[in-house]
Amino acid sequence: MKSIRIHIFGCLFLLSCWNVSAQDGRPLLADIDLQKIFIDANREKLLGHYQDAAYLFREVLNKDPKNHSAAYELSRMYDVLEQDALALKAIEKAVKLVPGNVWYMDFYGKVLERNNKHGRAADVYASLAKSHSDNEYFLFQQAYYLTKADEPAKAVVIYDKIEKMIGVNEELTRKKYVLYYKMGDKKASESELKKLISEFPEDTDYKHILAEFYKKENRDKDLQKTYEEILRMEPNDAEANLALAESHKENKDHFKYLKAIEPIVAKPDVDIDVKVRELFPYITIVRETKDNELKMAALDLGHQLTEAHAEEAKAHSLYADMLYHSGKPKEALKSYEKTLEYDKSVFPVWEQIMYIHAESQQMDKLISVSDKALDLFPNHAKVYYMNGFAHSYLGKHGEAANMFEQALMMSGKNVPLKYEICNRLGVSYYNLKKYERSDKMFEKALELSPEGFSALHNYSYHLSKRDQDLDRAKEMSIKANELNPGQPAFQTNLGSILFKLKEYKNAKKWVERALTSGGDKLAMTKELYGDILFQEGNKDAALENWKSAKDLGGDSKSLERKIIDKKM
Length: 568
Description:
The chain is mostly helical. The chain is about 80% helix and about 0% strand.
């Protein structure tokens, strides 16, 4: 029963807005029919059927061209449907029929804006402001549209009028400040800000706005004076303290700057985001600087940040980054792990932890961490890659291949990562004796990065181990050495290929390069050098190198046989 009463009341309300025209000679039944269409149109509007509602409102207007209510409602439907030109045409009809209707005029202004007719919109609100002189809303709207119409001077006049009505306030002053600045009247801009400060002398926020103005105008003395005034009122004001310390940063005296902001960093009541913003660049600086005093000052501030904000993940994360880039991975690991106690959702933190375990060859830990990360980030290719990397290092090539395959599916358009995955898959499949798949992955890696020296080296090595296409293996190994010179493993591989091709002189040259590049610590290099010397007839020196290879960890049956038999 209640719903029926509400429906009846709604219909009566709509009818009260109706343009009754039976007195003009229209038959009463026709008028009732129009009222029914109008009510149906409003029902469709309430149901969100805007196209249907627009159709019905048009029907009303077709039958009763003077129906201002239907014109207004039709404009609203066109507005919702983003048919701006039609909305404008309809509201203009409504305004023409009833010039003094505030609701129509207000909506008219909004529709004019959507049609980029800001000057006309300003005129609409000027008219409303004139007829409703006690309502500052219309003046605000007039000034707004004058600003949009690029008439800043006229807008200022209107804001002055509003100010006389309601007094000085921040919103008005900011608007006038911006407009004066836009007009190039810097003196007037400054005056507006000073007026605001004079009105509210205890509020430092307005002094900060004035400071921003002085900074923009490069008025350093006035800027410093303003910040000093702020600090007399609020000694712990972080922004003012940082600004006064800024001169040290501009002079690139990072050590003095860090010392200047130390009191701010140590205070728990200063916003952590302000501190992080200032300290963040020092992650890079500590990585690149050779100044240990500067490095220690930055690290000390990072530590103070964690003490001031002990339960903030971002504090521990920033300190961890500083430690890591200062060459302190163990200490960094503890801070990264502390970060996860407060926020496990930041992937770069997990990534750094995985890198540290990989770099320190803690592969069991890397598997454990990456397994946990997979639960949180099941769509991150890098997690699968790191898990596969750890399994590969431990000789678990089946598990590694599975993880690398998953990583490849997740890698999307990340070409560098795809290259690394394909390269690693090539190695894994080779060790699983799936040579066709291995070759396919190496070929894919080289398609992605034709100058990827790691894939060139690995592919050439695996081809030569199988005595497959030694000429191509040689070509790839030469390219790998050109792209990444001085690598003893690369040089030894090329020497091995040349040895198989019976290019003994050239092979010896490359192996001797390897020995002087660190290959004297590699069993494979010493063994190969022994093979070359034996081929030259220097059997004693060959035996000496084979024994050295065994001492370095060489454990192949062929090496053992060479030492026992003293021959190849």
